[in-house]
Design goal:
By secondary structure, this protein is of the alpha+beta class. It contains 8 helices and 11 strands. Helix content is 34%, strand content 18%.
């Protein structure tokens, strides 16, 4: 289902847009990319050493391209690779007992897809491209080197897994206790916070390429309910829309109303191993 040669869907200044190789990456010495989405994200939390930057950039040297709705990994498929999301969005889908599609995970540029599946031989979810997508695969075996030689990176990856869990708990809380309007508002705040880490969102604006159907699958609402919620947020002056761009007019005001906590901007790294 891979679509090689497709154009990248975004070309932000802080991510690689050239020097692409189609062979699988090695952690041995060879030409290094000077920047990467993953480095941009991790650098937000700690000051990376040159050695750490080198290793992380090498993980992005092999690129696979997909178009919207391509299946990257199917539920039950054996997991051989971990993926760095270079461009685009990808969602992890599951179905409930009634066959209703639910989105359990959403990954953005700079995220590492597959960390939640490390304990399993086969995938527990189906990963589907939500937009045009560029992924950088690296074999699970490469994690041995990272775990053995780069404990700070291991600590960061572990922290990101707990962040994903906390974000999912926030979404579940919203689905069980909040109105449709509040669920969608919270989802927008969470999305902007995630995108801001890698410079893909401004103080108030961000791009929302997901359809209203996919938003509904992420927050447990029908497409009709999502549409009404968005219109209500617009009418109340909380958001403005222009094409796929969404502006949250006063994020702090909406955030207080919805009891939103930005869990991604700052993490506790006091327990991280010291750099040798």
């Amino acid at each position: 289902m891979r679509r090689d040669g497709e154009r990248d869907c975004l070309h932000p200044p802080n991510c690689i847009t050239n020097h692409i190789r189609m062979d699988r990456p090695s952690l041995k010495a060879h030409p290094i990319m000077t920047d990467s989405c993953l480095v941009a994200k991790l650098s937000h939390y700690i000051e990376l050493s040159p050695t750490e930057c080198t290793l992380l950039a090498r993980l992005e040297e092999s690129t696979e391209h997909y178009v919207r709705r391509d299946i990257v990994v199917e539920q039950g498929e054996r997991i051989a690779d971990i993926y760095v999301v270079k461009n685009g969005w990808i969602c992890g889908h599951v179905s409930n007992a009634s066959g209703v599609d639910l989105i359990a995970e959403i990954f953005y540029p700079g995220d590492v897809l597959g960390m939640s599946q490390l304990a399993f031989e086969t995938s527990t979810v189906t990963y589907i491209a939500a937009t045009e997508l560029s992924l950088c695969p690296f074999p699970k075996e490469a994690l041995k080197t990272i775990f053995r030689e780069h404990p700070r990176l291991v600590a960061l990856f572990f922290a990101f897994t707990t962040l994903e869990r906390a974000t999912m708990i926030d979404r579940l809380r919203a689905m069980g206790q909040m109105s449709a309007r509040d669920c969608v508002g919270l989802f927008f705040l969470q999305t902007k916070a995630r995108l801001k880490i890698t410079g893909r969102a401004g103080a108030t604006w961000f791009q929302m390429p997901l359809s209203q159907e996919l938003i509904g699958n992420a927050v447990g609402l029908s497409t009709v309910s999502v549409n009404r919620a968005i219109r209500q947020l617009e009418t109340e002056g909380h958001i403005r829309r222009q094409g796929r761009m969404i502006e949250i007019v006063k994020p702090e005001v909406l955030g207080r109303e919805l009891d939103f906590t930005d869990r991604h901007y700052r993490i506790d790294n006091s327990w991280f191993p010291l750099l040798d």
